[in-house]
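Morning. Coffee machine broken again, so started the prediction first thing and wrote up yesterday's gels while waiting. Chain of 141 residues, entered below exactly as on the submission form.
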Amino acid sequence: MSEAVREATKKGRPEFRNIHITDITTKYKMPPSAIVSILHRVSGFGIFLMLPFLLYLLQESLRSEISYYHFGGIVDNVFTKIILLGLIWAYAHHFTAGVRHLFMDNHMALDKDAAQKTARWVLVISLVLTALCGLKLFGVF
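Came back before lunch.
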């Protein structure tokens, strides 16, 4: 321990240290609003990265009748369905979190309890929408 740190702890000053990514999950409890904020960024980044794949699928579905059937073959692959399910979650979460941010921009649900409640609702709604779309995607109904 350095001399400055020893002196700071003697005087009752807070000690600031760098934390590792594993410390976040083990030592710190994140509120739902923090989780929603992080997932909002992750989902937006995922949608951005998958944009070329989505545009390719759109091109294949619209080009001709033969390419449409080729598109159907691509989408019938289980690996593709899992990727699409991830994109469905990303879109559903990004959309619902965006609606939450619009409410907050209009000075609604800004206090701590309401913000935590709306964050929980974002998580629940996005997972329910993903589950419903996933059931349809995998042919349950």
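The CA atoms of residues 56 and 127 lie 26 Å apart. Going to sketch it on the whiteboard this afternoon.
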